[in-house]
Amino acid sequence: MGKTNEPSTGQQLGAALALLVIDLMVIAWLTYGYGMAGWADAYESDTTGPSNASRTASQAAWLLAGAAALSGGTLLALRWRIPGTVQLIVLGGTAALFASAT
Questions:
Q1: In this structure, are residues 91 and 67 in contact, taking their beta carbons and an 8 Å threshold?
Q2: pLDDT interval class at 6 (50, 70, 90)
Q3: Taking all residues of the chain, what is their mean pLDDT, rounded to a whole number?
């Protein structure tokens, strides 16, 4: 039995938890921006074109989808399966939620 180069489950769980905290902070920041844009839209009388909230949600969806693909894909390629899967699920799922708000 040879030693493999794969990280231990404990290391993967620790990395997944640390990345999850960062993900949640970014998601909270984007949600706050979306809420503020929606609040500002309520006070604008100009209704032509897409609303600020819609543009903000679209930007957040693209940002999170890119982050999910980049971070999750890289972690999976490096055989960090647990944090890679968590990144894809959390960031990708939130990107889908923002995309549905556009």
A1: yes
A2: confident
A3: 92
